[in-house]
């Protein structure tokens, strides 16, 4: 049992665990007292401080903000699908290639901006990117609604794509850094449920606004979630992990106390909470080199390939779905009805994946959902009846939503705080590459046969499932890595201040008395060299 477990046992355990923890703390304190300059206080990791602060109103509020951000991202991604036919009617002189530049250049903006936003988040802080990316999306979204012609509209959509790259890269990073390990998996997975709301929002506004108020009002409606979220995000403070990494320990402690206060858990924290700062993070030029060296290079490569493959298969199947359905020549099959059923199937699929995320683990859920989606696409390629096509297409979305949610959870968990956002930005860039390849790959394979793209997408998802199994570490219920040494919160002298936690005072006073007794009893053995275990604890 290490010092972190001692603190957890004292605060939460039964009488037996607390007694054992105190005995161990006493022994550890006496051993450290034998060495010059050794600290006498117990220490807690930052994840243990979050455990004491609890999962409550603060995290639920942040989850709602992150979820609305994911909804806004989904809305900005999908609304062009409904807008391009309207542009083709309004401006008949535009060619198909020119219309295709709208999503293509927007995706290019995301591809270029995502890693830059990630680096900025690791260098300047999560909050500046959290606000800046959404601010850019809101401004550019409204600018696209006011664009006087087609090409200014395209330029505005490039800026929207750039903002989208930051939002998708950093939003999940901010959330996971505030959530205790035990609740992190389930709560992060549920954020993607807001994507379904984004799809429904875009579809509903397209049906209501495009025929009546025109495309400008429709563009403005797509930007409204971003505008509202920009105001809400001012409430979110800087990540305490980033503050601690930058040596701003007092600010980090204040943020953690605010989290506990919002959750109604202020009394659970020590009266005097001090955070020991980490060594300085890598310089700007070292960020990429750090990621490209062991132990981060392997998970970065594997997860980047999975992001690319999943994005290509998902975007390809969705983009070519009307073509696939038309090739089946099934009467009475409506594309919009099928897409609505597919979207509805995402809800139970996500709930099932969420229920398994902490039981099976991230890698197990991700590989299983990827294989499930691959099998559904393979079955779709062989289906010929109306019912079979609807079932197979719905099954593909039932599975793939679990893949997306798990990948959004696993990626920030797999990298330490100094490079977490940079890694997320790189993987998001790879996802853009996969999305860009989806349409031309499907077009080329359709020349081979109507089912050829489906078989290729299924094989791609199967390969991604194998890559997931090669990811070196399972992050289920594990504390986030803050680099070495681990970020620690010290239980410094617990004073007699009014409102102090009685259990903390009794525990520390008891540990001090036990340390003194142990020190006197072992005075004859002081000349003996310290054990390797003691040396390791002192070095830590």
From TrEMBL:
Q: Does the keyword Oxidoreductase apply?
A: no
**InterPro entries assigned to the protein according to its UniProt record, in alphabetical order:** MFS_dom (IPR020846), MFS_sugar_transport-like (IPR005828), MFS_trans_sf (IPR036259)
What is the superkingdom listed in this entry's lineage? Eukaryota
Q: Which GO terms describe its molecular function?
A: transmembrane transporter activity
Q: What is the official name of this protein in its record?
A: Major facilitator superfamily (MFS) profile domain-containing protein
PANTHER family listed in its UniProt record: SYNAPTIC VESICLE GLYCOPROTEIN 2
Q: Where is the composition biased (Low complexity)?
A: 508-518
- Which residue ranges does the record assign to the Major facilitator superfamily (MFS) profile domain? 62-476
Cite the entry's keywords alphabetically: Membrane, Transmembrane, Transmembrane helix, Transport
Q: Which GO terms describe its cellular component?
A: membrane
Compartments reported by the entry: Membrane
Cross-referenced SUPFAM superfamilies, in alphabetical order? MFS general substrate transporter
Q: Which Pfam families match?
A: Sugar_tr
